[in-house]
Amino acid sequence: MNLHNSLLENYLSLRAVRIFSRKDLVLYLIVFFSATALKTVTELIAYPYPIGYDVINYYIPMLHNFENEWHTILRDYPFYTYVLHLIQNLTGLSVQTTISTVAILIFGLFAVSILSLGKAIVRNSNLFAVLITLFVIIQISVLRTSWDLHRDMFSLTMMFFAISMLIQLRKNHPSTYPFPSLVSCLTFTVLSVVSDRMVGAWLIVIYCICTILYRERTVALSLVVALASFFTLLTVTDDGYSIISSSIRSVANAGLDAQISGEQGKLNDSYNQVNLFSYFIALNILLIPLAVVGYVRLKEPLLQISLIVAFIGSMTWLVFPHARELVADRWILLFGISFSIFAGYGFIKTIQIISKWLRNTYILVAVSALIFSIFAQFGFTYALLPNDAQVSVIGLFDMNIKKFVSKSMQFNSVTVEQSPIIIDVIHWVNENTSTESKIIGSNDWRGWFISGLSGNRSFSSYESLGNLFKDTTYERDDHAYLVDADGGDDSVRHKTDSASELVKVHSNDLFTVYRILEIPRNMSLVH
Question: Read out DSSP for 56-72?
Fold first, then answer.
C-alpha cells in the first residue's frame, strides 16, 4: 500500500511539472504551427535563395565542407552544426533544405518553450499563456534571432524550457523534487549550455545569482551541471579559453585601443556608442510601456534576473565602447528577447486592467486585438516584406544599425532580389576562368563562392578593399580575380589606391569581375 501511494505521488508530481500534458495538446499545437507557419512563409518568399547572413556565410559552407572544416567547427561550439550534419545524412536532404527545415522546427519549439514559460507564470489562464507566446514570437528581436542565429535560437529554446520547469518545481513542490522532472530540467540546461557560448554564459550567471540570493536547491544543482558542461566544452573547443582571455585583454586595454584608433577610426567603426544605442532603441522602444507594466506585476526572480543581466551586458559599451569582445550587440538582442517576455506579460495585465473599465466583451476584444495588431504589423513587415520596401522603426535607424540587423528578413548577404545576380557571377567564373583560379572578394560573399565555385577554384576574402594592395612589391599572376560590388574602374582604383594592373573582364547589374595581372606578394586576405 505504501509503495502504491509513493508511486501515485511521484506520478502526480510528474504530471504537475511536465512540459507537455494531453489536455493542453491543442494549445501547444496552436503556438507550434503559428510559429512554424510564420517562419515557413518567410523562407518560401525567398525560395530558392536562403535568408540569413550566418546561413549563407557559415552554416551552408560548413555543411558543404564538413569534413574539411571540422577543425574550424570544433573551435566554435560544434554541437548544433554537428546535429545539422547528422540530420542531413539521415534524411538525404540538400544542405539548404536541411538548414531551413531545422530552423523552422526550432522556431516552433521556441514558441512551445515560451508557452511552457507562460503557463508557469500565468497559472489560471491558458488563453493568456497563448497570448503571451503569440506576442513574443512576432517581436523583431525574436525574429531577428531566428533569421540567422539558429544556434542561439536552439539554445534559448532549451534555456526557457529549463527555466519554466524550475518555476513549476518551485510552485508545485517547494520541498520535494520529482526525479524525472529534475532530470528533464538538467537535460535542458546542458543542451542550452553546450549549444551556444553566449546563451550558456547568460544562463549560468542567472543560476549563480539566483542561488546566492534565494538558495534554491534545484537552481543550485542546475548551476553545478551548467558549469560542468560549460567548462568541459571550453576544454574540448580549442579556442575556448583564448576567447575569454582575449575579452579580458580587450577590457583592460580599452583606453589604449581608443587612443590608437584615433578619431577617424571611431568615425569609420560601426561598433560605436551611437550605433549601439540606436540598436538598443530600435529593438525595444515600442515595448517599453507594456514591459514596464509586466516588470512591475511579474514577481518571478529567474526572469527578473535574466532581464537585469542582459541589460547590464547590453550597456557595456557605455564603459568600454571599443571592446568588441564584450559583444554588446548580442547582449542587446538577448535583452530584447527577455524584454519581449515582460512586455507579453504586460500585455495580458493591460487587458485585465482594461476589462475592469470595459464591461462589454466585444469592445474589450476589439481593443485587445488593436493593441496586438500594432505589434504584429511591425513583426510581419520585418519578416515578409522585401528589404528595400521595409518601413518600420528598424528602417528609421538603418544608417546606424545596418551592421547589426537588416531592414528585413528577406536578406542574406545581399537582398533576395540580388541573389540571382551573385549566382550569375559565380556561374561566369566557373565557365570562364581556369580551374586553379583564386577569386578575391568581400567577406560578405564568402558563403556564396565557397559553395558555388567548381573545380579547384578557391575564394579568399578581404577585410578592407583599401588595404588589399598596400604591399608595393608585385608579381605576375595569371589566375587571380577580384570581384567588386561597384561597377566602375575609377571606384576600384580609388578604393585600392594601388599600382596593381586590373582589367575588367565581366560585369552585371551589381558585380564587376577584374583580372589581377600583377598581385602583391603579401596581400592582406582572410581565408
Answer: IIIIHHHHHTTTTTHHH
* DSSP, res 502: E
Between CA 395 and CA 370 the distance in angstroms is 23
Span 341-367, average pLDDT: 89
Cell of 410: 528577406
Average pLDDT over residues 98-116: 97
Q: How far apart are CA 271 and CA 275, in angstroms?
A: 7
The predicted pLDDT at position 323 comes to: 78
The one-letter amino acid code at 459 reads F
Contact predicate 511/422, CB 8 Å: yes
Cα dist from 89 to 93, 95, 99, whole Å: 8, 10, 12
Is the distance from CB of 137 to CB of 111 less than 8 angstroms? yes
The answer to whether the CB of 109 falls within 8 A of the CB of 32 is yes
The pTM score is: 0.88
Query: 87 vs 63, 69, 527, CA distance in Å?
Result: 11, 18, 28
Find cell 567588386 and name the residue: 484
Q: Name residues whose C-beta falls within 8 Å of residue 422's C-beta, 6 or more positions apart in sequence.
A: 414, 445, 448, 510, 511
Q: 292-317 burial, b for 16+ CB within 10 Å, e for fewer?
A: ebbbeebebbbbbbbbbbbbebbbbb
Residue 96 sits at φ, ψ, to 5 deg, of: -65, -40
CA distance 421 to 448: 11
Count CB-CB contacts under 10 A for residue 512.
Answer: 21
To 10 degrees, the CA torsion angle through 382, 386, 389, 394?
Answer: 30
Alpha helices in 361-488 (DSSP H): 361-384, 393-396, 398-401, 419-432, 446-452
Q: Is 480 helix (H, G, I), strand (E, B) or coil?
A: strand
Higher pLDDT, 251 or 90: 90
**Cis geometry, peptide bond prior to residue 61 (ω within 30 degrees of 0):** no
**Which residues contact residue 303 at a Cβ distance below 8 angstroms, ignoring those fewer than 6 apart?**
121, 163, 338, 341, 342
The pLDDT, as a whole number, for residue 382 is 92
Confidence of residue 152 (pLDDT cuts 50, 70, 90): very high
pLDDT (0 to 100) of residue 470 = 60
Angle subtended by helix axes 126-137 and 95-121, to nearest 10? 140
- First and final CA of the chain: distance in angstroms? 70
pLDDT at 390 over 50: yes
351 CA to centre of own chain: 31
Whole-number Cα distances in Å, 274 to 253, 267, 395, 399: 21, 10, 16, 11
Quote the pLDDT of residue 392: 73
Residue 470 vs residues 117, 464, 523: alpha-carbon distances, Å: 55, 11, 8
d(Cα 520, Cα 28) in Å, to the nearest integer?
60
- Which grid cell is 156? 534559448
Instruction: Record the cell numbers describing residue 86, joined without a space.
Output: 547528422
Helices (H), 402-444: 419-432
Alpha-carbon distance of 415 to 446, in angstroms, equals: 15
Higher per-residue pLDDT: 75 or 16: 75
